[in-house]
Design a protein that fits this description.
Elements (H helix, E strand, L loop, with lengths): L1 E10 L47 E4 L22 H4 L13 H11 L2 E3 L7 E6 L5 E3 L5 H15 L5 E6 L2 E6 L2 E4 L2 E2 L6 H4 L7 H5 L8 H4 L20 H8 L3 H13 L2 H5 L4 E4 L9 E4 L8 E16 L2 E12 L8 E2 L2 H8 L15 E5 L1 E5 L2 E5 L8 E2 L4 H5 L1 H8 L5 H21 L4 H22 L3 H8 L2 H5 L18 H14 L21 H9 L33 H4 L35 E4 L9 E10 L5 E6 L5 E6 L6 E8 L11 E9 L7 E9 L4
Parallel strand pairs: 19-25
Antiparallel strand pairs: 1-20, 2-17, 3-4, 4-5, 6-7, 7-8, 8-9, 10-15, 10-18, 11-12, 11-15, 12-13, 13-14, 16-17, 20-23, 21-22, 21-24, 24-25
Helix pairs in contact: 7-8, 13-14, 17-18
């Protein structure tokens, strides 16, 4: 006999939904499969920018390298083509005889990709990748700079266009492109001979488009980005990684193998490099451009891809008619995630930040940029500013023009009302909170949350006459104190990218319990000089909760010169003392909202109750007006069989999540199953979550019970 008892527990964590856009960092990576160290801490192998910004650019490798064994794809077209047979043909986002060059077609392709929902975790908008073969897939989970590089490489490879990025180390220039991975003197280290080692099935394109089988490369399909722990691709399958995604979108398997290495080597600093991209005027922004947030010259940064640009008329300011534009951004993050598609308002916040090239940050070479295009100049591949875009170009030495762009974006991006500005900043704050729920060690999320709060304080004072203490009392949460801002350069926690949602819950539970008898200053989730690895206080609490196996030990997942600090550094701030406002804060967590307990019983190995879950339902609801952003289902299972018990949760969108496979012989299991919510104001986590329980005793197919958990939330 099996009995399942389920109870819905709803945890209110915010009044507002959010779009997630947290920053990434360039990682220190271990040796790759060819025995090279991807980034040498001594700097001998560190890939650095070349800092050249002529319109024509520096000449690179001779075009003769295209025939070398290192070549990845064949170049058949030029970016400036408009009237060749290939250029006149209809394509992925343009019709026949479009008159567009390939760079303009790249913009059209990005602009054409529709929205869809992210897979797993918190639910946000992302985009569907459209391929020339008619295959459409949700965007891959990548770091922020990787999203921009992946899109450019995919398009260039599919349409046989020249492409390369370059950098410099102490031995000279390095080129990664359609010709492989090379130096001026020859092949770069022991990188692969792509042409000889991997297959190109591009000649099967017509057959595939007619319904033929898609060719697969098993070696690529099981590949990870070197050094990664977070490149899972749930839209492909439960055990799929980046290589499996590349295998599904590239007939030329060489491109997939090439990308897996390129993405490990190049990051936001290389996209800021004027040898690979060029600065453009604010008015010129188009889909496919990249917005680079660089608050420092080296190290971590953030990259956002422009996915939409729409004209919205003009407005008169004095004697001047100023164009009005809506632009929307999407970005990945570290740890890797599917790119999150930001609203126009949230995107405007990013465009107008000082750190995206504005005053005081212009020397870091951030801001809005466009890809250079590779061109044969005098027999050498050269990254140039296309002739059709020279009027949009700003020289990287013109710091005054670069620094003026955030202010110009304030003028030309559609103006928001005070209420809209408030909601955008709350959206931004909640984005960082949601990221911390998944990765509680993230210092970037903490920093960006507090930057948004700083802007929020100014807005609320100017437009709503609220001082910061009043703002804190109304809008802060306990979690903001538990995950307080840390100084990145002197805090060990900031190097730790493998923290998990379970650890977030453990830290929050510890702090909630502290408040049970009287208000107590929250204990910050950070490294401190205690027993263990600096986090023993929370690790011990995890053990007390019976969740010790969910605690992940600290690890340096990126460059971490501060790894030896005894105590992390909390950034000093004027945030209101927690106990002075605690009585005004939303309860965290709220009391459970209980639905009717669900009892299911059946007996006999292999007994399947007609495959009919009718009547096996559970519902719960709440009238709380705040958005429910997360829910958990607590399930107690008692069974008499001694087989392996597997439990799968099917989300409302059809995605499946294996919750647990119990050990043989266990008769009782207590599970904490997290449901994903829509995460937007005005929407809810409502939907049917199907719980499938299979006991594999005495039958090849197992015995199955299904229960539908219907979560209802007041609009």
């Amino acid at each position: 006999m099996m009995k399942i008892r389920a109870l819905i527990f709803l945890l209110i964590i915010s009044m507002f939904g959010a779009a997630c856009g947290t920053d990434d960092a360039e990682s220190q990576l271990p040796a790759d499969e060819w025995g090279r160290t991807l980034f040498d801490p001594t700097g001998d192998e560190e890939i650095a920018p070349t800092k050249d910004d002529a319109v024509t650019g520096q000449r690179g490798l001779p075009v003769s390298v295209d025939t070398a064994s290192t070549a990845v794809w064949e170049v058949k077209n030029a970016w400036e083509d408009t009237n060749t047979a290939a250029a006149r043909a209809a394509g992925i986002a343009w019709g026949e005889n479009s008159g567009l060059n390939w760079d303009q077609k790249y913009q059209a392709w990005i602009n054409s990709m529709p929205k869809t929902q992210t897979e797993g975790g918190y639910s946000r908008d992302t985009f569907m990748l459209k391929t020339p073969w008619g295959v459409e897939l949700p965007a891959p989970a990548l770091e922020c700079a990787e999203v921009a590089i992946f899109l450019r490489v995919a398009f260039a490879s599919w349409y046989n266009l020249p492409f390369f990025m370059e950098a410099r180390d102490r031995e000279g220039r390095i080129y990664f492109g359609h010709f492989g991975m090379r130096r001026d003197s020859g092949k770069y280290g022991s990188m692969p001979d792509f042409k000889n080692r991997y297959r190109d099935y591009s000649d099967r394109a017509l057959d595939v488009m007619a319904g033929g089988d898609w060719p697969s490369d098993p070696d690529l399909a099981k590949k990870k980005i070197p050094g990664s722990f977070d490149d899972a691709q749930p839209m492909i399958g439960p055990d799929a990684h980046a290589g499996a995604y590349f295998d599904r979108v590239f007939l030329n398997k060489r491109t997939g193998h090439f990308l897996s290495i390129l993405l490990a080597y190049f990051g936001s600093v290389n996209l800021a490099d004027p040898s690979n991209t060029f600065n453009i005027k604010a008015e010129a922004v188009q889909a496919g451009d990249v917005l680079v947030d660089r608050w420092q010259a080296q190290g971590i940064g953030h990259v956002m891809v422009v996915v939409r640009r729409n004209d919205a008329g003009q407005k008169q300011v004095g004697d001047e008619m100023i164009p009005q534009i809506e632009a929307e951004l999407a970005s990945g993050s570290m740890p890797r995630r599917q790119p999150v598609w930001e609203s126009p308002g949230s995107s405007k916040y990013a465009f107008t930040k000082s750190s995206t090239g504005g005053e005081g940050y212009e020397a870091n070479n951030g801001g809005i940029k466009r890809w250079r295009t590779a061109k044969n100049v005098g027999g050498s591949w050269t990254n140039v500013v296309p002739a059709t875009h020279t009027r949009d170009w700003i020289n990287s030495t013109d710091k005054e023009a670069i620094a003026a762009r955030p202010e110009r974006f304030k003028e030309i991006l559609v103006e928001l009302s005070p209420d809209q500005k408030r909601d955008v900043l709350l959206e931004t704050i909640e984005a960082r909170r949601q990221h911390l729920q998944q990765y509680p060690a993230s210092c970037s999320a903490r920093i960006k949350r507090e930057e948004a709060f700083d802007a929020f304080y100014v807005l609320m004072k100017e437009e709503f006459n609220m001082d910061p203490a009043t703002v804190d009392a109304e809008y802060r949460t306990l979690a903001d104190y538990v995950f307080a801002e840390l100084d990145y350069g002197s805090s060990k926690t900031c190097c730790w990218n493998r923290s998990t949602s379970n650890m977030y819950e453990i830290a929050m539970d510890y702090n909630v319990k502290l408040q049970e008898t009287q208000c107590t200053a929250p204990v910050v989730f950070m490294n401190r000089d205690d027993a263990g690895d600096g986090y023993d206080l929370f690790r011990q609490h995890a053990i007390e909760l019976g969740r010790g196996d969910q605690w992940v030990a600290w690890s340096a997942d990126e460059s971490c010169p501060q790894a030896g600090v005894a105590v992390d550094t909390i950034v000093e701030s004027d945030v209101a003392d927690y106990c002075s406002i605690a009585s005004d804060l939303p309860e965290d967590p709220v009391d459970p909202v209980q639905g009717e307990a669900l009892d299911l019983e059946f007996s006999g190995a292999g007994a399947i109750p007609d495959n009919d879950p009718a009547g096996l339902s559970l519902s719960a609801s709440t009238q709380d007006e705040r958005l429910i952003a997360e829910a958990s289902v607590f399930v107690d299972i008692t069974h008499s069989w001694r087989g392996d018990l597997s439990i799968t949760l099917v989300h409302p969108d059809g995605t499946r999540e294996v919750i647990q496979e119990a050990n043989p012989g266990d008769s009782e299991d207590n599970l904490n199953i997290r449901l994903a919510s829509a995460g937007l104001v005005g929407k809810s986590a409502a939907g049917a979550y199907e719980l499938i329980v299979i006991d594999n005793a005495g039958s090849d197919t197992g015995s199955v019970v299904k229960a539908v958990l219907e979560l209802k939330v007041a609009e």
